[in-house]
Amino acid sequence: MPPSITLYTGPTPNGRKISIALEEMGLPYTLEYVDILAGDQHKPEFLALNPNNKFPVIIDADGPDGAPLTLWESGAILWYLAEKTGQFLPASGTARHLTHQWLMFQMASVGPMFGQFAHFFFYAKEKHPYSIARYQSEMQRLLAVMDEHLAKSEWFAGDAYTIADMAVLPWVEGTVDVPGIDGIDNLRAWVHRLKERPAVMRGLDVGRETVRAETVEGGMKGFSDEHRSQLFGTAQYTRTK
Ligand SMILES: N[C@@H](CCC(=O)N[C@@H](CS)C(=O)NCC(=O)O)C(=O)O
Hints:
Elements: E1 5-9, H1 13-25, E2 29-33, H2 44-47, E3 57-60, E4 69-72, H3 74-85, H4 93-123, H5 129-152, H6 163-172, H7 185-195, H8 198-205, H9 225-232, H10 234-237
Parallel strand pairs: 1-2
Antiparallel strand pairs: 1-3, 3-4
Helix pairs in contact: 1-3, 1-6, 1-8, 4-5, 4-6, 5-7
The chain binds glutathione (GSH).
């Protein structure tokens, strides 16, 4: 029998949240890579899965109520997988609400602010100092919020490792060891604690072989106007029906 879950993803933090969760939960899955620099996300067959033209997306052939489920938005997918397996989400009480809180914090703040910083610092053609400074300040503020919290708490939601930790990790694991970023010792120790887990490392490695030289991770060699069009220009903003 093929795995019931198919993960549409690529080598970025939002995709890696889900591969980490699937590995941690021991759920088998089939991988489908979405090449967002080539415009796969704008193809009708992908838009039929996610009209918001972004990965990650999962299809679970063995969904709730005996029917298949297609789900997008990484936070919603993490919540679904945790409920499906009964893992990495406290069953009730304060810890369950705190898991929800930190997951929302990642989705609403860490992802968007770090993402905008990467946009203006790495991808934008014109380097606009105000925008870079704005998102760099937000990123530093958020790193401090997380570091202060992890000074008092082993995991984001308290004593238990949860999907909130899985959501944050891929967004900060590349940042904590950058020379010159100081004052985040607790966050760095948390990242290193998580990286001792084989399932986390397997999840972070999903799609590594598909990293293209044009991305931040590939060193931004060859990021072109065509790539800008797919992500931030004409191809992104011209919807075909
Ligand atoms: N809020 C969404 C964000 C997903 C997202 O931004 N995905 C990026 C890759 S990390 C993407 O597919 N971008 C393609 C595009 O915007 O055209 C989530 O958490 O799932």
